[in-house]
Amino acid sequence: MLGEAIPLKLTGWAWLQTGIDRRIIGWDADACAWVASPPVATVGSSAPGTPPRWAMTVSHRAVQLSEPARVLSDDMLGAIDQFRAEHHFVASQSNAAISVRLWRPQPTGRSGPVSRRSA
Fold first, then answer.
1. What gap in Å lies between CA 33 and CA 27, rounded to an integer?
2. Helix, strand or coil for residue 17?
3. 86: alpha, beta or left, given left = phi > 0 and alpha = psi -120 to 50?
4. How far from the centroid of its chain's Cα atoms is residue 53's Cα?
5. Could you give the residue ranges of the DSSP H alpha helices within 71-111?
6. pTM value?
7. Which of 41, 57, 61, 98 is the most exposed place for a label (fewest CB within 10 A)?
């Protein structure tokens, strides 16, 4: 069997880019902790303006996503600091950048009605 049978369930999640891979950080209710996922391979598609509901890691573990984070909390930033200390690449690179991106709806390209007035 590929990957772990039990999906990682994250709420209050955000994208975590380490410079060498992309992960998802979020609250894992089963572990009662903020966790960073293994590197992400794919993300499920979703309707415009709707956050993705799942992702799959490189190690074939399913990640269920709910309620993307709206702000970065102190607890989430603390988990990122801990991840930075424990991650082999980031820990070895004192100036390695980690970026955190909150999920935001993308513009759909539709614009509202345009009113025109003649002079």
1. 6
2. strand
3. alpha
4. 11
5. 74-86, 88-92
6. 0.79
7. 41
